[in-house]
């Protein structure tokens, strides 16, 4: 799903059944993420409005973390303790575009795995950015929604241009 599709701009529904259908969705999401060379993917990016994301992403020490979080809640350091990473961000739903977006350099997501067991993932560096980005997706927001209006317009215009050309 690309920017503009309503499923990306609508908050996802919580998962209520941890069944084979959910596990099949998670398998599909890992396959889609790897096919697109992504480090994370939210269910609504493949058109399913459920609170599920998958990730396979390095942290600040270049240690790879892989998993799924169902019904995640995001935990960030308190405002006084928060340090911002000024790095660039991109999204498989706005392909080819990147923009600097300050994000907390630490984040955690708490939720459940596909079997319904509690899971928590704590991340630094790119993984911290990924966790924030994926939970934003599930809340119906794209990273470009957090950019200054002018920058957001530029990113969208460049995307439209490459889409037409492509
Ligand atoms: Zn994304």
In short:
With 166 residues, the chain is of the alpha+beta class.
Contiguous uncertain segments of 5+ residues: none
Q: What distance separates the N and C termini?
A: 16 Å
CATH topology: Peptide Deformylase
Q: Averaged pLDDT, please?
A: 97
- What radius of gyration results from the CA coordinates? 15 Å
The CATH architecture name reads Alpha-Beta Complex
| SSE order | HEEEEEEEEEHH
Major beta sheet, strand line-up: 1-2-3-8-9
Structural class: alpha+beta
Q: Any ligands, ions or cofactors bound here, and which? A: zinc ion
Note the beta-strand portion. 25-35%
Q: Class in CATH? A: Alpha Beta
Binding site for Fe cation: 91, 133, 137
Keywords: Hydrolase, Iron, Metal-binding, Protein biosynthesis
InterPro entries: Peptide_deformylase (IPR023635), Peptide_deformylase_sf (IPR036821)
Pfam families: Pep_deformylase
What does this structure look like?
The strands form 3 sheets. The protein has a 5-stranded antiparallel β-sheet with strand order 1-2-3-8-9, sandwiched between helices. The chain has helices spanning 20-35, 125-138, 149-165; strands at 40-42, 52-58, 64-75, 84-85, 88-90, 98-100, 103-104, 106-112, 118-124. 28% of the residues lie in helices and 28% in strands. It starts with 19 loop residues before the first helix and ends with a helix. The chain is globular, with a radius of gyration of 15 Å. The chain has one domain: Alpha-Beta Complex (Peptide Deformylase). With 166 residues, it is of the alpha+beta class. The structure holds zinc ion. Zinc ion is lined by residues 91-93, 133, 137. Its cofactor is Fe(2+).
